[in-house]
Amino acid sequence: MKRLGNYKELESLLEANDAQMSVAEAHGLASGMLCVQFDADFKRWLTAIFDTDDHLNSLSDDDQQYLSGLFEGTVELLKNRDFIFNLLLPDDDERIGVRAQALSEWCQGFLYGVAYMGAGDDKDWGEESRSVLRDLLEISRLDSDDSDDSDEQAFMELQEYVRAAVQLLLHDLQLSNGEQDEGQDGDEDQDDDPTVH
C-alpha cells in the first residue's frame, strides 16, 4: 500500500543496511507489536530488525524517516474503524512463489511481534484467537517452492484470511489491554468478528 511505502525501495534499504529480516517480516513484526499496543516503540522495532548496534547506528536520517513512515502508517491502518489494513507484500506481478515466501515471512514477523510485546502463550487467549494463531504458525511454515501460477486464487484467499485474522487478534488484544481507540471502541461492527475458518 502506498501509505506504507514502496516494497522494492524498502527492500533495498534493508539490504543495504544488513537487516536481519525481509520487508514482509519487518512489517509483520510492526503489525504484531502494534496489535498488542498502539504506542509500541519505534526504536524497539528497529532494534529487532537490525542485528547489531553498528547496523542500527549506520541508518541515515532519511532511512529512519522512511522506516518511521512504514511504522506510523501501520498504526494508522490498524486504528482505522473501517479496517483498511493490508499486508505489505511484493507486487502482484511477482512470481507466486516469491509472494508466498513473503506471506510466510510476514506471519513469522507478526507472531514474533506479538510475543516480543509480551502477549505469549501465557495470555488468556480466546479459543478462536488460539485457533487463528495456530493457523498463522502453519502459514509461517509454508513451502513456497511448491507454489505455481495455478495457486494464485489460493494465495489470494490465504492473504485475505491473514488480514481477517489480524483484525480478530487486534480486537482480542486491544480489549484485553483496555486500550480501545475511539475509532476501534464501541463500533457495533466489532461485535461481529470476521469468519476466519
Provide key terms for this protein:
disordered C terminus, 197 residues, mainly alpha, globular, Four Helix Bundle (Hemerythrin (Met), subunit A)
Q: Helix share of residues?
A: 55-70%
The helix/strand class is mainly alpha
Low-confidence stretches: 179-197
Evaluate the radius of gyration.
16 Å
Number of helices: 8
General shape: globular
Can you walk through the features of this model?
By secondary structure, this protein is mostly helical. The protein has one domain: Four Helix Bundle (Hemerythrin (Met), subunit A). The chain contains eight helices and no strands. It has helices at 7-16, 23-36, 42-49, 53-57, 61-79, 96-116, 127-139, 152-177. It is globular. Mean pLDDT is 85; it is low at 179-197.
Secondary structure: elements and pairs:
Blueprint: H1 7-16, H2 23-36, H3 42-49, H4 53-57, H5 61-79, H6 96-116, H7 127-139, H8 152-177
Helix pairs in contact: 2-5, 2-6, 2-8, 6-7, 6-8, 7-8
